[in-house]
Amino acid sequence: MSTSTQPSGLRKTLQASYDEALQRVPEALKAEGFGVLTEVDVQSTLKQKLGVDIRRYKILGACNPAFAHKALSIELEAGLVMPCNVIVYEGDDRRATVVAIDPTQTVAASGNAELAALAGELKTKLARVIDKLA
User: Fold this and answer.
1) 68 CB contacts (<8 Å, ≥6 apart)?
2) Which CATH superfamily is domain 4-132 in?
């Protein structure tokens, strides 16, 4: 159960169930100064809008207010990559996988060194969130 960094983000498959993960993720985020601003139930939305069935899958929009303020102070359009999305989905084995966005990937195109440094700090915090879920 190691944390890995992939183009899609910081990932960990847990021994926990989907429901357990959904309870633990907000707590782990809170410990690093994040709150969950939004929660999108992708499974329910796709069932309702398209009539399709997919695995249980939620997108949590996490925000660290202090970092958000710093990012917007550096570059007003940094809001395009906010909040930091964290996904939780149920695997075929019924275990939950949690993936957090890698902020260093989303701000790479900005070319702003100060914003890139802030993204590095955010990545460290999100990696700790993912590690705490083990």
Assistant:
1) 82, 83
2) TT1751-like domain (3.30.310.70)
What are the extents of the domains in the chain? Answer: 4-132
**CB contact at 8 A, 126 and 10:** yes
What tens-digit pLDDT sequence spans the chain (134 residues)?
445 544 569 999 999 999 999 999 999 999 999 999 999 999 999 999 999 999 999 999 999 999 999 999 999 999 998 999 999 999 999 999 999 999 999 886 678 899 999 999 999 999 999 999 97
The C-alpha torsion from 16 through 19 and 22 to 27, rounded to 10°, is -70
Cα 105 from Cα 116, distance rounded (Å): 9
